[in-house]
Amino acid sequence: MDDDLFAKGLAQRKATLGAEYVEKNLAAADDFTRPFQEAMTAWCWGFGWDDDAIDAKTRSMMNLSMIGALGKMHEWELHCRGAINNGVSKEEIRAIIHVVGIYCGVPQALECFRAAKKVFDELED
């Protein structure tokens, strides 16, 4: 693995998802899951997110759209928090969910709204 790409990825992953969350996931990795955690950190976050052609806010918005389309709601909720960390507003998240509803169906949009509401409620507490 490229140590430089991992280091860049780790910094980007922590900036978006929160250092505590990332450190907890890495600490929980074992011999079975650690290689994937390391590769994903280097590839997704180091290679993908560290490319400055697209800013972090836009990447977060793209991720919410794609993950919403895939229906991976645990990841959607996580990336909703990350999107907020990257400056995506509540109104922008609402607009993203509208697009998910148009292209992926109303039931999927409702799932996204449920996950977003949970995140917003947690932030208000």
Assembly annotation: single chain
Major pleated sheet:
none
pLDDT averaged residue by residue: 95
- Give the overall form: globular
Description:
- With 125 residues, the chain is mainly α.
- Helices cover 82% and strands 0% of the residues.
- The chain has 7 helices and no strands.
- Helix 4 packs parallel to helix 6 (90-104) and helix 5 (73-85) packs across helix 7.
- The protein is globular and about 40 Å long.
- It starts with a helix and ends with a helix.
- The mean pLDDT is 95.
Keywords summarizing the entry:
mainly alpha; about 120 residues
Question: Could you give the topology of this structure?
Answer:
Elements (H helix, E strand, L loop, with lengths): L2 H15 L1 H10 L5 H15 L7 H15 L2 H13 L4 H15 L1 H19 L1
Helix pairs in contact: 1-2, 1-3, 4-5, 4-6, 5-7, 6-7
